Structure formats: structure tokens, C-alpha cells
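Team,

Forwarding the record for the chain on the shared tracking sheet. I've put the sequence and predicted structure together so nobody has to dig through attachments.
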Amino acid sequence: MTQAVSEAAAQGDRSENAEYTYGKRRLREIDRRVRFLRKRLDGMVVVDQPPSDRQRVFFGAWLTLEDESGHTVRHRIVGPDEFDMAADYISVDAPLARALLGKRLDDEVRVTLPCGERAYVIVAIDYS
């Protein structure tokens, strides 16, 4: 018993332990994130079918855009929690996506980006 008491005294009170304090803080952050995501789930709708007008840009579309110099880029418009630059996904909240929503094939879109104003022409829209 004396050895257990001396080990506890050597380690200090658990509430004074830095790892314990960090762990409690991290757990609170995780709990806060879980609550946030649960609230978001209530308002989400699964989009499992393409829109009736496939010639217009809507959520979930794969787009091929051509800039003024003829360079093409391909992006998919996804939800804010799904975007991944490596997979060429852009958030529906991004300035480029907001400018594209509702546009049609061959429409020109001008958007102000951090690198300056850019113009794109929609050359392909795909929902597969």
C-alpha cells in the first residue's frame, strides 16, 4: 500500500497531469464537433438522381470549364463538408460554384477569385 501511495504522489494528482487536461479538452472538442454534425444531418438531403434539365449546372455536377487561354479544368460541385482539392471537388459555397449554379452549357461565367477576375466557358456538364 505504501508503494501505491508513493507512486500516486510521484505522478501527482490526475487533475494536475498535463496529458489528462489535454485529453479532457480534446474530448470536449470532439463532443462539440459530434453535436454540430448531428444537427447538420437533420437538414441534409441525399441527392441520388440527376436533375431533369441536364444542360444546367446544379449540385453534384461534373463541369469542364475552359478559360480565356484555352486551358480546361474539371470540377465537381459538392457540399461544404465534401470538398477535396485533390479530387477536383469544389464546395457549393465557393465563389466559382456560386457563379456556375444555374448556368447552361456554353455560358460564359466571370468570377472574382483570389488570383483576380477570371472568365470561363462551360464546355461540358455531366452528372455521372
